[in-house]
Design goal:
Layout: E1 22-28, H1 39-54, E2 58-66, E3 69-76, H2 82-97, E4 107-110, H3 117-125, H4 127-130, E5 143-145
Antiparallel strand pairs: 1-3, 1-4, 2-3, 2-5
């Protein structure tokens, strides 16, 4: 693990998964390569997140696919641990793109009962605006939230 930055190995220490808990996960592409700048790759990633829901592994509340990272707000279902779910998402997307695309580890935040989930979802989907990719959320194609019809 010499190629990891000092804090990356700590991202996996003490991680606890709780079924039915809502998590906000952020994970970054290898060397911040803009893999998802490609429409095809971004759509692949969107479909992989949707497939996770269809398989009953997760219940997505909001997500955004940025060129070099993703934010995913979801409820973890009972059949998987958080680490296992994220590993399967990363594996499926790397397989679909046919190359290694992810940095090791990921950042997760278990949402507490007193936190406003819609505020977190707004933070997630506003990432393209904060990154300067678009002027308004509706102009960015690779996001979704259950509150938007």
């Amino acid at each position: 693990m010499q190629d990891q930055k000092p804090h990356q190995k700590d991202l996996r220490k003490g991680r606890y998964s709780e079924a039915a808990r809502i998590y906000h996960v952020t994970t970054t592409t290898l060397n911040r390569e803009p893999i998802f700048q490609s429409h095809e790759n971004a759509k692949l990633m969107v479909n992989i997140l949707k497939k996770s829901d269809q398989l009953g592994h997760s219940n997505t509340l909001a997500f955004v696919i940025i060129p070099d990272h993703i934010h995913w707000l979801f409820q973890l279902n009972q059949d998987r641990s958080l680490s296992n779910l994220i590993q399967s998402i990363k594996s499926a997307s790397a397989h679909a793109v046919t190359k290694a695309i992810w940095q090791k580890g990921f950042y997760d935040h278990a949402i507490r009962k007193d936190e406003d989930i819609q505020t977190i979802a707004r933070y997630v989907i506003a990432n393209p605006v904060r990154a300067g990719l678009v002027k308004k959320v509706g102009d960015y194609p690779y996001w979704d939230a259950v509150w938007i019809l």
